[in-house]
Write a structure and sequence with these properties.
It contains six helices and no strands. It is an all-alpha fold. Helix 1 packs parallel to helix 4, helix 2 crosses helix 4 and helix 5 runs antiparallel to helix 6.
Amino acid sequence: MATALFAATTIVGTFIPLDTYLDIGQGSGDFLGPLLTLSPFLLFFLVFLNNAIKTLAVIGLGILLGLPPLFFIGVNGFIIGSVMSWVKSINGLEYLIASTVPHGVIEIPLVLLATALSLTVGWESFKWVRRRESSVKSQLSASFKLYLKVILPGLAVAAAIEAFLTPWFIGLVGGG
């Protein structure tokens, strides 16, 4: 369910008119511009911390019947689709691939896994609200254990790729 929602909203995000991309790009450029001047180590730390906090929050917010995580994955899909389309229109497909795929093939599945875990917690919460037999606590505990064992280390790898290797990949395609 999380993957389908993410895919659908990513596709919808690619259909934003170009002038809207430019508005999004300008806004994100104002916000993201300073990130380009950071050392790779600081960039790694900030990207990792951002993703670690958001995925942990997604899992924890699953207790609210899974609704906040659905909103999170939908909004993220839309934003990613919009930004990818904008980047492609400005810098071309090769740049887009070089700047997103190396870390995205790790990061996106981990975010989807966190969302899927939160939906499982949400389902257990829904059963609890309906006064059915539920295992909210054990599901939440199992989700946090998987977060620590799989998601957190994977996010560290993705952040390292994004901070240290992505600039190199972009340079290979002539974007940096």
